[in-house]
Design brief:
three-stranded antiparallel β-sheet; mainly alpha; 239 residues
Length: 239
């Protein structure tokens, strides 16, 4: 027997959509909160740039200190990649709500998280590396690290998108393990059992030419009963 699925449309279920929207909102808030904490970590890891005051309100960078601006940016990008990979892998464990709505929550949460990492990190770095408004000449002051350019904010959502793509490609089930046949809560069609037709043959038997019995087969030679060697004939036993 063969089993097929009917072509009945699943439709959209409001309760499933609302459940996925709430899950996406939770993921958005969680990624934003964790990213804000990561901004504090970046503020402590990113090195400050030291300058020598040569004139009132004017300074020059010491040898090698200008490279710290690149170091701060590189640390920010690496933190964003780690958050995108680890955060997305953790959210993917929420098997019940996998789907396009959760993907939107992950991408928007990662983008907002990268922005919060920058804002919170720079604010904390300003508090860690304070400097006087009018430093004296021949003194060394520190400039707090900062994230230059907005291109660095793409690292976290880009890493999250790549992880979702890989995990989706590696999934062995069509529904990604959610238990829902169609997106947005579509119902799984009922299986229809289709049985094969009854076996038949086009071969017919009889009547045969020369058979006086019509449809019955009459052998050409009479049937002789088989007697085993050494058996006594019935006529002899009757005597």
């Amino acid at each position: 027997m063969a089993t097929t699925l009917t072509a009945e449309p699943g439709g959209l279920r409001v309760d499933v959509v609302m459940r996925e929207v709430r899950a996406a909102a939770v993921v958005f808030a969680a990624l934003a909160a964790v990213s804000a904490l990561a901004g504090v970590v970046w503020a402590y890891l990113a090195p400050a740039e030291q300058l020598l005051v040569v004139e009132p309100d004017r300074g020059t960078a010491l040898t090698g200190e200008s490279m710290h601006r690149f170091d701060a940016l590189a640390i920010f990008v690496l933190i964003g990649i780690v958050l995108g990979v680890v955060g997305t892998a953790a959210v993917w464990r929420w098997r019940r709500v996998r789907g396009p709505i959760l993907l939107c929550g992950i991408l928007l949460g990662s983008l907002a998280g990268a922005f919060l990492t920058k804002v919170v990190g720079e604010a904390v770095a300003e508090q860690l590396h304070t400097r006087p408004k009018h430093p004296a000449v021949h003194t060394i002051v520190e400039f707090a690290p900062s994230v230059e350019g907005w291109a660095a904010l793409i690292a976290q959502p880009l890493a999250a998108a790549v992880v979702v793509l890989l995990l989706t490609a590696l999934s062995t089930s069509d529904d990604l393990g959610t238990g829902e046949y169609l997106p947005f809560g579509g119902q799984r069609p009922e299986p229809t059992i289709i049985a094969p037709p009854q076996y038949g043959s086009a071969i017919s038997y009889g009547p045969y030419p020369g058979s006086p019995a019509g449809n019955q087969f009459t052998p050409r030679d009479p049937v002789v009963p088989f007697e085993a060697p050494g058996a006594v004939p019935e006529s002899d036993t009757a005597r």
